[in-house]
Amino acid sequence: MMRALFFGWLYGVPFLLVLGLYRRTASPYLATRADVDAFASTTDTLLWASLILVWVLPAAGLALARWRQDERWTSAFTRSFLWSATYLLPPSDQWVVPAAA
Q1: Cα separation of 64 and 23, whole Å?
Q2: Average pLDDT, 10 consecutive residues per value, the chain (101 residues)
Q3: How far is the C-alpha of 65 from the C-alpha of 70, rounded, in Å?
């Protein structure tokens, strides 16, 4: 169970994110407005799922590891929160704070 949560977070979440971003930048030929709406809805669902699961899976794993008093998995899921934070960081060129005039 712990391994499934961890590897779901490690491989599944980035897969959903890459798939959602690929669909977001794609320009498929769709004949009707309903097809376009369905494509956009699926793309948004993939992106939202990846952004929610990046936090939910480590939280569930950490709670389960602490409940089972498993130090190895507690440590692994604690580190996964740190990696999840990098998901939301802006690009490094935006980290520089301009000097006051």
Answers
A1: 34
A2: 88 90 84 86 91 90 94 92 75 63 55
A3: 5
Residue type present at position 47: L
Q: How far apart are CA 20 and CA 49, in angstroms?
A: 9
- 68: DSSP letter: T
Neighbour count for residue 80 (Cβ, 10 Å): 22
Residue 34 Cα to chain centre, angstroms: 28
Neighbouring C-beta atoms of residue 74, cutoff 10 Å? 19
Closest of 86, 61, 60, 87 to residue 76, by C-alpha: 61
What sign does the CA torsion over 70, 72, 76, 79 have?
positive
pTM score of the predicted model: 0.73
Cα gap 67→61, rounded to integer Å: 10
